[in-house]
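Appendix B. One record, verbatim.
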Amino acid sequence: MEYTYRTRGTCSRAIHFEVEDGKVRNVRFDGGCNGNLQGIGRLVEGMSVDECIARLGGISCGGRPTSCPDQLARALTAAKNS
């Protein structure tokens, strides 16, 4: 299933991703640091939703209480609970 999550408190504006059989697929960010966010998308490709949430949740950026990886963890949590 495909999801879109509107981010809050980060340079990126939205995250698009799919979840298939409990695995994260095709993560794409709108805005933000393009190279870093492409890297995150490739690193989490095929990772279980739960492992991705555990690894990325709680990461902060530049003194902000959240980050693009943290927003991805929040997006996956929301998708898991929907």
